[in-house]
Amino acid sequence: MAILKVLELMASSPKNWEDAAQQAVNEASKSLKNIRSLYVKDHSVVVKHNKIVEYRIIAKLSFELEHPVQAKSKK
């Protein structure tokens, strides 16, 4: 049986919301394994001089916890 943990993350990008979501996954994958999904909970932008300069998201990232037996057998 899989057990999933959910973390709430904030991420941003100067390009678009999709890139902000990808940045969240990229950074999370540096320290987490078995990422399953990313749910974008909220999004916003930063505006300067009437131009959008940054896209921001708040997202919930889920990942599967490793079972202790699985972790030992992978070594």
Q: If you had to describe this structure to a student in words, what would you say it looks like?
A:
With 75 residues, the chain is an alpha+beta fold. The chain has one domain (4-73): Dodecin subunit-like, CATH 3.30.1660. 24% of the residues lie in helices and 51% in strands. The chain is built from 2 helices and 3 strands, in the order βαββα. The protein has helices at residues 17-28, 68-73; strands at 4-13, 35-48, 51-64. A 3-stranded antiparallel β-sheet has the order 1-3-2, with helices on one face. A hairpin with a 2-residue loop joins β2 (35-48) and β3 (51-64).
Please specify the SSE layout and strand pairing.
Layout: E1 4-13, H1 17-28, E2 35-48, E3 51-64, H2 68-73
Antiparallel strand pairs: 1-3, 2-3
Please write the CATH class name. Answer: Alpha Beta
Q: Identify low-pLDDT runs.
A: none
The CATH homologous superfamily name equals Flavin-binding protein dodecin
Structural class: alpha+beta
